[in-house]
Amino acid sequence: MSLVIDAQGLRKEFTVRVKVGRLRRAKRTVTAVDGVDLRVERGETLGYIGPNGAGKSTTLKMLTGVLTPSAGQVRVCGLRPVAQRTRLALGIGVVFGQRSQLWWDLPLRDSFDLLRHVYRVPAGDHATRLRRCRALLDLDEFLDTPVRQLSLGQRMRGELTAALLHGPRVLFLDEPTIGLDVVSKRAVRDFLGELRRAGDTTLVLTTHDLADIERLCRRLVVIDHGRVVHDGSIAALHSRYGSRRLVVAELDTALATPPTLPGAPLERVEADGRRLVYACESAGAAEVVAGLAGLATLRDISIVEPDIEEVVTRLYRSPASRAAPVTG
Ligand SMILES: Nc1ncnc2c1ncn2[C@@H]1O[C@H](COP(=O)(O)OP(=O)(O)OP(=O)(O)O)[C@@H](O)[C@H]1O
How far, in Å, from the CA of 19 to the mean position of ligand 1? Predict the structure, then answer.
């Protein structure tokens, strides 16, 4: 494995002028990113999330060479993002919701062609990549439409293509599904899922849509007040915050006393005793199901996964998230 992103102690301060009293203005320092360490291997898909103002976009801007860090070390594809920005541009793709890399008045097809010249992509590579994007993102019906006439969902599919035509090693995406309808959201997620499966592009994704994260990311980095408060899998986040899988058993007939199962406390009894809900603590779902099957006649069983929205809400509210960063 090779490291494609290596940031240590990354920090960004902004000086802002604030009004003090009626006439005076004073300088204040806002620490947007406060010592972020981030190492990302080739082929990883990383979800970078946090509440509004946490420092996500600022981090991405430092990783892509748009902003100079106030302190810290950073290498992306082995390059210093600001100092070697032109070389870096060949190795990364960027999709930032607010900024377009397409030519507003030109048909999408012409923007793609111009990008081929900008990045000096060999014609054969360009054609192969474009063919793949056309097929996976259903671009054909609007390839000849000027960009300004595209819907948001169509434009986002165009932006994704534009970001990938030069074959970048890392793709940075800032809120790629924001404002999209369910069909376009799915198209974008499926496409990114395909890209992840192919395994040669590293994806770094910021989003407020946790379904994006659940569908796409094995690793989740949570940032709050400029600091990393979680770096690990979604499962690690659930176990840290005590979220548990639930086993919901529908019984043929209610039992006089619901069974006690080791490692799986009974959470709720519903439907006049015909539905029992157990939480998997030390017991796995299979053990719970096997235990129940020996004691009652089961009509149906379902397993409810812990809800990521709930655990992330708890994390954002947690005072502990302001203290020490946690990894795992
Ligand atoms: N150019 C700037 N000048 C001054 N302050 C800034 C600037 N850019 C960002 N900030 C401040 O830095 C902090 C982090 O902002 P940033 O945009 O990185 O957050 P974010 O996590 O991307 O938020 P959101 O989810 O709302 O997009 C905020 O307090 C923001 O007001």
Answer: 19
